Structures
1.
Amino acid sequence: MGILVTVSGAVGGIGTSTFAWAVAQQVTHTMPGLTPVLIDAQASGPPLDLTAGAERVAGIRWSQVRVRSADIAHETVLAALPFHCGVALLSSDADATADGVA
């Protein structure tokens, strides 16, 4: 079992993504064996992997997510995500627009 932490900002540019990244980094340092997963649900603004410095790390982004079954093993999801500095990330593509169309 894990811990769920949700971070939401009222407007863009106030540092929500940076704060979420800092919380995830703290988890990697204080809770060994627990892998934080950051999911960027923001449709606009820079992708979370850019904030984390992981824009060149291999792994799927939102445009590549395909759900074929309601039964998805968490290990499969973690293996597909970019992993950077102890944190798994799911973010939009760097070239995606606000409506998700490149």
2.
Amino acid sequence: MTCYRGDLMAIDKILVILFSLMSTGFVYWFFLMKNSKDVVAAGKSINIIVDGGYQPETISIALGSTTTLTFLRRDPSSCLEEVVLPDFKIRKFLPLNKKVNISISPKKAGEYEIVCGMNMFHGKILVK
């Protein structure tokens, strides 16, 4: 079987185009689509694991109720040793492998942030 130089270049171009399209699709999914996290409904209390971020990252709380957020930090990095809820004016130190309770009573519906002390890791509280 004889292979012409023109046929090889066409196959190479097709492979490059396919790889480029797949890479573009992956980058789009990773940075834009992947960020839609599941929302976890919290009752009177919810446990939040601090390990490379906040898990769960997004929680839902009923308006007018008091909810206790229990943080357990497993990540030894200094960035996550502090949790900040700016809208509630709360800033707490999170010792490694120890639970820290924070009670909040949102007075209005909306979206509230949970951030680390260096503002690098983020979570959300949705109040409905």
3.
Amino acid sequence: MRVPKVYQDLFDIAVSQGWRVEQRRNTHLSWISPTGAKVFSSFTPSDNRAVQNLKRDLRRYGLKV
């Protein structure tokens, strides 16, 4: 799957920990934890804090960043 450059490091960490990342048809990404919890993010982040906010949300569901 092709992931935007801003998410590439986070994508690699998530996949190595058993997460799945799927592209939604409406240009969003769905980050799915091994337990089935879902976190959604924009495919193209619009602000400077988008990646930090996504990391925070993923940590809440168990991703070790």
